Structures are given as C-alpha cells and as structure tokens.
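Just curious: can you write a single protein's sequence together with how it folds?
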Amino acid sequence: MTTARRASDRSAWMWLVCLLALVGSGSFHRFVSAAPRESNRATGSRRQAGDLLQSYREQHDRLLAKYGETLEALALNCESKNLLEAAVFIRKQANSSPGDSGVIESLPKKIQAEIPAGVSPDERNWRMQLRHAQLQYAQELYLLSRRALGAGYPSYAYQLVREVAHHDSDHAMVRRLLGYVRYDDQWVTPFAARMMRDRYVWHDKYGWLLKAHVERYENGERFFQGRWISAEKETALRQDFKDAWEIRTDNYLVKTNHSLERGVEIARELEEFHDFFIQTFAGFFYSPQQLEKLFRGGGDATPTRGRQRPYLVHYYRTRDEYADRLRSKIPMIDITNGLYYTTDRIAYFYHDPEKDNNATLYHEATHQLFYEIEARDRAITDQSNFWIVEGIACYMESFKKDGQRCSLGDPRYERFAAARYRYLVDGYYVPLGRFAAMGLREFQSDTENISKNYSQASGLSHFFMHYDGGRYRDALIAHLAEIYQPQRGRRDSVSSLAELLNVDFDELDRQYGEYLKEMETGLAANSR
C-alpha cells in the first residue's frame, strides 16, 4: 500500500469516527494492562505535588481575603461620608473576581480613562484608593502566577493571569500574554492593529471593511470584483461556492455561500472559541521553556497567529449542498453534521435553520486546532489513546458565551449528564487502562458500545480537567501534546496518564467514580 493510500485511509477513518458513524471494522489489539501499584516514593512525590498546588491556592485565598478586607474598609469609609452608591460599587468590585478557571470574562478594549477632573474631592479620593488596591492586588497575583508557572502548573498560572487582567486591564505584560497589543487608546490583536493601520474597521455585521466602504454597505451596496453592485445581486452571484464570501479574521478564513452576515457570525464565534482555547490549553501550544520565556517578556504570545495560513472553514447554505460537495470524498457524508477533514485541513459545516449547531462547530474546531499544531501529516491515536482525542472534543462542545462571560464544562451539559447516567444507572464503565489501550479502529469497531464509550470519554475528560480544582489538568494537556506532536520515528512515545500523574489506573478509576457521584449529588442539591 502506498503512503498516499495509507494517509487517505487514515483520513477516511478519522472523519467517520469524529462524527459518531456506527460503521467500520478492524482488528482488535491486545489490551495494555494497568500500571503497577505505585511505590511509596511515587506516592510521596504525588502527595508533594498536590500539596504544592494546594499551597498556591491557599496563597491566592489569602491575597483575595486581604484584598476584600481593604475594599470593605474603603466601603465603610464611604458609608460614613454618606457615599452610599460608592460603597455599593466598591463591594461589587470585591466580589467580582473570576476565580473559576472554567470562566473567562471579556476584557475592556479601551485603555482605562483617568478620573474625570470635575469630580468632588471625596469621589476622587475613594476612586484613587480603589484603583491603588486593584493594582496592588493584580501585581501580587501576577507574581504568584510566575511562581506557579515555575513549579510546573501552567493552567493555574494562566487562571491567575486572567484574574490579573480582570483587576488591572492595562497590565502591559498580562495583555501581551493574552495576545494583545496597544493601538492608540485600545487593546487589540496584532492582526487587528495591522488592519486598522491599513484603514480597515471592524463591522459587527459585515466584518473587516475599508472605512470608506462602511456607509455604502449600510445603504445596501456591495463591492464585488472591483465594482459596486446591489446586495441582492451579490447574493445571487455568491451562490456558486467558487464565488462565495470569504471572511478573514485573526485566525480563520471562513468561506460561505449562505450570507456575508452569517459568515461573520461564524468567524466571530470561532475567534471567541479560539482565544478561550489557547488560554485553556497553553501548555499544549508552549513548552515549559517557552512559557517561562513568555512570562519574562520574550517569545511569541500568540502561537497560532504566526501560522502561514489561517484555519480554513467552509460553511454551506444547506445540508444538501454540503453533502453534494463532499460525497466524492466521503461516501457516507449524509450521516454527518459537520467534520474536520485532515487530508485537506478544512472544517466543513452547513446552515441548519431548525437548530443551533454550535456544539458541532466547537467539536470540529477542537480537532482542527489540535491537529494543525504541526504542518506534517501524521497518524494520531491509531494504536492507542483514541478516547481522549474524541473525549476532549466532546468536552469542548460545552463552550458557552453568556454576555461578557465565556465558560466551559457545565456539568449539566448533555454529554456529561450521559456520562453520569452510563456509570451510575447503567453500571457501564470500561476500566481506564483498557480504555486508553484502544486505538482508532478498535474504538470504532465496537459498534454495540460506541455511544456509551463516547459518553465515558466525555465524562473522563471532564474529570481530568476539573478534578480537585484542576489538579490533573496539566498532565492531561501534556498527554495531548505527546499525542499530537509525536517524536519522529517513534511509535510508542506517548506517556500514559497513569505515568504522567504517578497514579495507577485502578486509583484513577476509583476517583472517577467518586467524582461522578459527587457531581450528581451536587446537582441534585442545587435543583431543590
């Protein structure tokens, strides 16, 4: 079989599996036995690592408590001067820390304004004291983030960095870490700064437009192939996908024949997802050395923005057109709701007027972001560890934006509810040692249990991302990095999660079961 043929076969399996197609066949591989019980030395090492992370959390709690006390004293002082609205505002700031790493708040785009010259002396005084307290707390958090990073906890370090930005939105180093540069009086991405220098402006409905074109677009005209035409005529011409709209953003090129407006919506949703993704999986995109350099002020703070090409997305007007376009590549395309095709590195979707398909959008975008960390074609989890490739994509389906807040991992999301049901009600669970030994074909070939296995993969991904405040998150991210960036010439270079954590599979199985029970109990209590 030629190399090209083997690559084609792998792609055919990948799209099929990623979309839960219950077909396929393949030989079963030998199960890998669970890792042996850890030694007392390994147990002690794990305990030390857990205690160190807990120590950083306790330092964080003390800093937050001190900050709260400072702001409460300021609020009481305002009340003594009958500045009641100011006291309410100050207490609101004290209670606004994001805290949970599963939540990210949008940052202000504008540089923080100076205190207005015309305010009363009392107002100027409390505002200055509040600002001083915010800046001091933010700087203490930043120093703590540096220590957490040095100790090997990049996910926790980035959680702290995001909190720094919440309290000091003009912290130059943090803004850089989060991928922003200053342009005039705004914080923008490097791509946006280039566009603005070229006299483009971002329009929420039409995307990037030359500033001189905005008024004509808002009046119903469109610039098409060097001339102005009506919006109606452009819509008719763009129905042919070769002349489809192309919407370029920081990281994506969305091509669609549905509408310019819908293309802009899709691009914006993907960009919001991308920014959350990069911060959540910082340890995947950067080595520990790169992260350390980044926190010291060197290196590229936007790893995917240095790509030679944007991530490619094709979005079709209808399901029928989507299927017709792809059937020659994928004969069973009709059973899919969207896909990321590794051969051409394009994510394909279609418009469904009856329902929101954002879960599919985020699922396939996850595959694309992870896979395209390298330019070369390569086999991923064909021998083992397939569960996490699909499990983490199912986990990322829970991405949600609510106003200025983005969140991830809501335990009520259907994938996680199904995982609890399979385990707690059906009594279905494949021990993790066996589960991790399953490669792509073996996982897919078990057609009787594939839906249950997807539920388990989703639940396990939630467990490794959130257990004990995220204790296992960085190990999971390191596991993903080894899977997607294999060393050349080595087929078995991926460390198991048991090895990375120094926790044997039996213990992880036990912890997972307890985690699901506690989650179910908590949800039941909250629903009363």
Remarks:
- The chain is about 55% helix and 10% strand.
